[in-house]
Amino acid sequence: MKQPTARGNVSALLLEITTGEPPAADKVKHLEDAVRTALARTADVVVEDDLQLTLFCLYELHYSGLDGAAEGWEWDPGLIRVRQLIEAVFEERLRTAVVVDAAPEPTSDAVAAELFRMTGEDTGPSMSRFVAREANAEQLREFLIQKSIYQLKEADPHTWAIPRLTGRAKAALVEIQADEYGGGHPDRMHSALFARTMRAVGLDDTYGAYIDAAPAITLASTNMMSLFGLNRRLRGAIVGHLTAYEMTSSQPNRLYARGFARHGYGEDATGYFEEHVEADAVHEQIAGRDLAGGLVEADPRLLGDVLFGAAAALLVDSWMTRHIMDAWAEGRSSLQPDRSFAA
Amino acid sequence: MSPADPAPRAGDARSGPPAASIVACPDGPLLVRGEFEVVTPDGEALPRTRRTVALCRCGASVLKPYCDGSHKLIGFKTEPPAP
Ligand code: FES
Ligand SMILES: [Fe+2]
Ligand SMILES: [Fe+2]
Questions:
Q1: Which residues sit with their C-beta closer than 6 Å to ligand 1?
Q2: ipTM of the complex
Q3: Which superfamily does CATH assign the domain made up of B19-83 to?
Q4: A289-320: b or e for each residue (b if 16 or more CB lie within 10 Å)?
């Protein structure tokens, strides 16, 4: 990923460290101290720019890497410790905020039914209805910039879970992910279809091109997936997260397609959304019964985390939607201020 | 029950898994996996871009014969309500 611009002393320290060679014990210790201080000071880690960017960069070492960073930093014990410090506070914040109000029987049918119920509830303002009917051309571009932080690596955070699952749940996850990755056709990968949409409206589809434009809540939304995906103990949560995403996708994507068509954009822009109407009507069935339901049947102790992961996905996305819609309602941009991405 | 694609077998059909399977999803579509073709009444193959498909059985999809999730909006139920 393109090197982001630092948003405070913590991310500045991390970016400075990773451009050098590992190990750098003194500097990493210094970073650890700075992170402890920042964590103690922050009122809400979810919207803390410096810490969310730092966490995002630490995770990115495991995905595409950071431009200019030595690859040896990925498993540096000091950086892993720093990551865990932020993760602990972030996870605690999510667990406190998320309400899981039902405990279905640990059977595949009951788990699927409960997840369909949770995801079917109306959760605040609707981005998709706004995009379909009202968003202007600039807001459509902004919407894509916001989404690009995840969608240009769509499916990757959930793929971490594959070797942690077995049997029916594993087969279900692989079946869904194979479709996400284009079923053997690189140009049909969902991330590639999203890149095509970005190009169609004149945006840069390089990963990280808009990282400086992303507000903390947008980084937090993707960081949450990496947190769930990279920690085996949270495999229930990443499964619940994916299931919630699949179950809240078909209809919104139909409306997104309509919004871009309304502005005269063609299939090269709408194709990504149209693909998701059909794909996720399939994925949500597999995810509910075979992935989430199959996992809970194999290990009923994971039921709570499956529901937590699903509820967290819905909650954090509702925060992100509110951030964007509130800005638009006030006639502002929802992107980070004072940065040079807007061109 | 397994979501894996069963390979079609030559010879004794009873010795292996069926070439395709259909899951009747509660309150939702028919999920079809394996080796099959979806064709028009004239026998022409319909466009298909994924291995496993969901066929609408609520009647409300705008992507028919495929499901588009509309069954959730119309409250489609596959079981009659309890008396
Ligand atoms: S069964 Fe899903 S739209 Fe008809
Ligand atoms: Fe997708
Ligand atoms: Fe999907």
A1: A 281; B 28-29, 56-58, 60-61, 67-71
A2: 0.91
A3: CDGSH iron-sulfur domain, mitoNEET-type (3.40.5.90)
A4: bbbbbbbbbbbeebbebbbbbbbbbbbbbebb
